[in-house]
Amino acid sequence: SYVDSLGWYHIVGEVQNNASTPMEYVQVTAKLYNAAQETIGTKLTFTAPDVIFPGGSAPFDIIALRQSQWKNISTYALFVEGDVSQNPSQQNLVLLNQSGAIKNNNLVVNGQIQNVGNRPSLAKLIVTLYDADHNVINTGWGYADEGIIGVNGVSKFEIKVRHNTDPNNFHYRIQIEEEPVDTE
Known about the structure:
The structure is a single chain. The protein has 184 residues and is an all-beta fold. It folds into two domains: 2-84, Immunoglobulin-like (Sandwich), CATH 2.60.40; 93-180, Immunoglobulins (Immunoglobulin-like, Sandwich), CATH 2.60.40.10. 2% of the residues lie in helices and 61% in strands. It has one helix spanning 67-70; strands at 2-3, 9-16, 23-33, 39-46, 51-52, 57-64, 75-84, 93-103, 106-115, 121-130, 136-149, 154-162, 171-180.
């Protein structure tokens, strides 16, 4: 967990899918406790990407906005639930190239993706930032520059993840979430 430059408290991490089926709409709930172990709040979020395939993982970021609430957080407990995915989307968006660097307290990841499927798709890119010990320290997402990428189309992207990070000691991962678009 950390407090960002706006004074918001974040609980970040990853959910691992140990099941044999894809899971979707994975909700992470944080129950917040004060020093007396009294519940002082509950916050929730969903993982991104929406579908976590068997053996895969997805990051989450739970945000407590009010300092009056988070300044009293002594500990928290996380609870995870999700649904079995009935129709996981095809993975027709592929990463062609990418590079990342720390610039002005931002991890900036640039690259290109291509749609190798047979339908246009909206491309969402999720970046997870890790410290030297591979602990999640932040996550962020954005859309490819083209938004909807046509069949065989290529799009550039740039995703910024804000965090004060050692520029010589970090790792990151990119995940692509695809939403096929009907053109009719």
